[in-house]
From TrEMBL:
GO MF annotation terms: oxidoreductase activity
Regions crossing the membrane: 36-61
PANTHER family (alphabetical): RH59310P
Transmembrane helix found in the keyword field: yes
GO cellular component: endoplasmic reticulum
Keywords, comma-separated and alphabetical: Membrane, Oxidoreductase, Transmembrane, Transmembrane helix
Family as reported in the entry's similarity comment: Belongs to the short-chain dehydrogenases/reductases (SDR) family.
Family matches, as Pfam families: adh_short
UniProt protein name: NAD(P)-binding protein
Keyword Aminoacyl-tRNA synthetase among UniProt keywords: no
Length: 348
């Protein structure tokens, strides 16, 4: 242990008061009791960080629990909203390959019919259907989807709330430049529709236990991104909604048991920059394609965490954003989004 100080604080004149209390503080700090407490606390913090790192790494190598939801003798169905393009279409492909029948949701009937024919040729042993409903409308499109689900020749065990996006053109503008109807449309697509769909389908999912609700969030919702304020705000809502629903299932005795033989699981994926028809921006080392994103999301099913990341790169970058000083983070975001905004305006 470091030696204690034994200074005659009276010799320091006008500084005697400061020296006296500084000496007392130092001697308290180097005392056996405080040093032991500090060592125990430091060791606990280190072990806690190591345990967190080990658990985080384990989530990327342990087998997923997705197949426990493919249990219905009459056929297990997954509903994927926004299934025509991008991440939604990738979810469809991945789920079909894993033995699920899939109900595709979108708003373009002709496009859905074409996709369904393609998928039927690729997966002749699976049942595939579609439902048309415009998620941007306020007149309860979720009721159309719920009615279609009731007609399925099997059990709905997976709900993928993927539909989302930005409806305004140009895409990157300050909020005062976005038309009121586009703000309403984004609120409907990204927040109202998935919430109402969960409300409408939760009784069905309870009857089909074990079942799971998978919500698609966004890394942008962790900080708020300029020029797409409404979008990132609605995705933050999705994160909180997921955590609240998970708590509700626990409070109502509907949380999954240890072997996932019953219960309704709720999980949200914090998705980073993903290439799609709507997003063509490629950020080095941080961008993934839609198929890799969907595959990574499904690999985290059953991890035990409510908010998950589809890849370790998204997890690391999100963690880095959390520890950066707010001012530095803001400057970095503003610089990048100004560039993206300028590129978008050139394309227009």
């Amino acid at each position: 242990m470091p030696p204690k100080l034994d200074l005659d604080w009276k010799e320091y004149g006008p500084f005697s008061f400061a020296v006296s209390y500084g000496q007392k503080a130092y001697n308290t700090w180097v005392s056996d009791t405080v040093q032991l407490a500090a060592a125990v606390l430091g060791t606990a913090v280190v072990f806690s960080l190591l345990a967190s790192m080990v658990l985080s790494c384990a989530a990327y190598i342990r087998p997923a629990k997705l197949q426990v939801y493919c249990h219905s003798e009459t056929g297990s169905w997954a509903l994927v909203t926004g299934a025509s393009d991008g991440i939604g279409r990738a979810f469809v492909d991945e789920l079909l390959e894993r033995g699920f029948n899939v109900l595709l949701h979108g708003r373009n009937q002709e496009k859905l019919e074409r996709i369904m024919k393609e998928l039927a040729q690729q997966h002749p042993k699976r049942s595939i259907d579609f439902v048309v409903a415009d998620a941007s409308r306020p007149d309860h499109p979720e009721d159309i989807v719920a009615a279609k689900v009731k007609q399925l020749p099997g059990k709905l065990t997976i709900l993928v709330n993927n539909v989302g996006g930005i409806t305004s053109k140009p895409q990157y503008v300050t909020i005062d430049k976005v038309a009121a109807e586009h703000i309403d449309a984004q609120l409907n697509i990204n927040a109202r529709f998935p919430t109402q769909l969960i409300r409408a389908l939760l009784p069905t999912l309870q009857e089909s236990q074990p079942s799971i609700i998978l919500n698609c969030g966004s890394a942008g919702a962790l900080v708020g991104i300029p020029y797409i304020a409404t979008y990132t705000a609605t995705k933050a809502y999705v994160h909180t909604l997921t955590m609240a629903l998970k708590a509700e299932m626990l409070a109502e005795g509907l949380a999954p048991d240890k072997k996932f033989t019953k219960g309704v699981e709720v999980q949200c994926y914090i998705i980073g920059n993903t290439l799609s028809a709507q997003n063509t921006t490629d950020i080095p080392y941080l961008t993934q394609d839609a198929r890799a994103c969907a595959r990574g999301c499904l690999a985290k099913v059953g991890s035990g965490k409510t908010l998950e990341y589809p890849s370790w790169r998204v997890a690391v970058s999100s963690g880095f954003m959390k520890i950066l000083p707010e001012g530095l983070l803001m400057k970095a975001m503003v610089g990048q989004m100004r560039e993206r905004k300028a590129e978008s305006e050139k394309e227009e």
